[in-house]
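Let's practice the habit of predicting before peeking. Look at the sequence and jot down your guess about where helices and strands might fall. Then scroll down.
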Amino acid sequence: MAYKPTENISAYIHIPFCEHICYYCDFNKVFIQGQPVDDYIQALLKEIELTFKQHPTQNCETIYIGGGTPTSLSANQLETLLNGIHNKLPTHSTKEFTVEANPGDLTQEKLEVLKAYGVNRISMGVQTFNDRLLKKIGRKHTAKDVYQTIKLLDKHQFDNISIDLIYALPNQTIDDFRDSLNQAIALDLPHYALYSLILENKTMFMNWVRQGRLELPSQEIESQMFLETIQEMESSFHFQYEISNFAKKGYESKHNLVYWNNENYYGFGAGASGYLDNLRYRNFGPIQHYLKPLQQEKLPRLETETLSKKNQIEEEMFLGLRKTEGVSLKEFNSKFHLNLLEVYKNVLPALIQKNWITVNQEQIKLTRTGIFLGNEVFEKFLLD
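Done guessing? Here is the structure:
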């Protein structure tokens, strides 16, 4: 069967290996020691090849390698992976190529490999600059490692750097958070992502909360941390372009905007999810379950779901409203051949009256109040 190439599909590539497991993390990951890392890389490249045959694209504008910890791979393993990606995807058009890293994991040798293969953006999981809190959440790096890694990145001329911070950590005070926020902003990086701690099932943190061993800041303190984040970021010319993401103009994450704009992307790797031609799919998570079908030249799909038009519209709203610019009425009409204001005519007046959203001739977007309510607003856009 001949498949017509899609003009542009981005790619997310999952590396599930970590050198340690953080107490709050529920991403698909395993401790790297004793794992079949080389076999996994070969299987991953096989998945890319098989998927590309079914869903070819002319361009791959963004590539994002996440985890786990991609930089837990050796320099040679990184080279095998990156070389394979370039051979199997149309990377000639890739504008943004991101790799996630942990402070302290990046060596000169690894950075030389990343640079040589066109990686031009690094996303680093810092979480906090407080060494006591880092230990408490199961991170192995220190604040000193962050500064040393930034120095190393600077030396190798990586200037598009993003760091993640988590707030509302166990026993974190407002002063603790302000200190971390100030240290982060003082680095004057182009991009920051700040998330409140979410307790996920099957994590050590969730078990400890259930046992009464963990004390988290109140909802009031968490909201205060979020408000101060927005204010401080604005003061330093880092603009909130999505609920949790702040960037200098022109440094917004192109890859993450693919998700929020509800566009197509490949999901490669164990536990990865993708979205192709209104089909959402998820791969097997356990490594051996992922490897087995690929050894038989089959795709490692755990589940697939073809989205109805109703599902697509709901996702367009949930994802698009996360952006501060909101959902474009024109784009909505172009995608669905429907008038957004007509589709949601029974919902919008009440939300406008509550000052949760604003609507004009071009878009619908959350107000500052709406941004703080998030999911409470999004659920109003479920269609009957």
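How did you do? The mean pLDDT is 92.
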